[in-house]
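haha ok so turns out i had the wrong file open the whole time. this is the CORRECT one, sorry everyone. sequence first:
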Amino acid sequence: MIEVEVKIPIESIEEIEGQLIHNGFKYQKTVVETDTYFTSDHYDMRKHDKALRIRTTENRDTGKMRAQLGCKGPKLDNISMTRKETEIEIREPEKMKEILKELEFYPAFCRVKKTRSYYSKKRMTAAVDQVENLGSFLELEILVEKEADREKGLEEIKSVMKQIGCGEKKTVRTSYLSMIEKFST
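then structure:
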């Protein structure tokens, strides 16, 4: 799958959530996601514009926990955060961390923790994020199966951005991890 995604810093979570609902998005759930990213001396993920992470998720509405191992490929355009993404559920994230360490992948010096509220409308997902030590963001995302569908997905996202009053010039192409690392150094 290809994740067509746009990320926008926001001033007011309540205002954006109101705009999403006004424009037909439906609330899905609120979660706390904690991401541990990995890199290696033999394969520098940042140098290759890729990301390898273990994400643990606590559903605030149900209390259920889950974990995933994910790999994101390089960005596919100069506008968005669009990437090929592969994820798999894992039952024992601590053991997966040990396996990665055995393969000489080590955790990045900081983690990304966010409270995320999900909204959806047709095939689009909106995630309203409060990122620990960073601020508030809106991510709009559509999953497409083929590269040929990527541009259409991006146009749909741009249309929603216009409807909710978010201009294209406000978008950022930097990952939360990179932003946190920048402010931590």
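The radius of gyration is 16 Å.
again sry for the mixup
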